[in-house]
Write a structure and sequence with these properties.
7-stranded mixed β-sheet, 0% helix
Length: 124
């Protein structure tokens, strides 16, 4: 059973770059046809897909966030990282990492494997 855990700052100032790391245990991020994804849920809204990095290392991003998003991985640590630049208060959300066996661009939390989520607030 794969397990995921997000880590990173809970507070980011406007215009800064957010960096979140997802640490994976119970499975390798380079095998098993895994698609290692980032989602977020702004206050009072639904889940929003941000992007994923596939087990091959290829990446795919939401068109609305693509200009500001980068997802990378550290295979030696079995981790993958989200960087979201030019943060604004509208980026305030709970951020989740997740693993799917297909390249999903939308999902509900009853499929795949999810981290517990981490609150990120953008404020000066």
């Amino acid at each position: 059973q794969v397990q995921l855990q997000e880590s990173g700052p809970g507070l980011v100032e406007p215009s800064q770059t957010l960096s979140l790391t997802c640490t994976v245990s119970g499975g390798s991020i380079t095998t098993g046809f895994g698609y290692w994804s980032w989602f977020r849920r702004p206050p009072g809204k639904g889940l929003e897909w941000i992007g994923y990095i596939a087990y091959t290392g290829s990446t795919h991003y939401s068109p609305s966030l693509k200009r500001r998003t980068s997802i990378s991985r550290d295979t030696s640590k079995n981790q993958f990282t989200l960087q979201l630049s030019s943060m604004t208060p509208e980026d305030t959300a709970v951020y989740y990492c997740a693993r799917f066996s297909k390249p999903l661009t939308e999902a509900t939390m009853d499929i795949g494997s999810w981290g517990q989520g981490t609150q990120v607030t953008v404020s000066s």
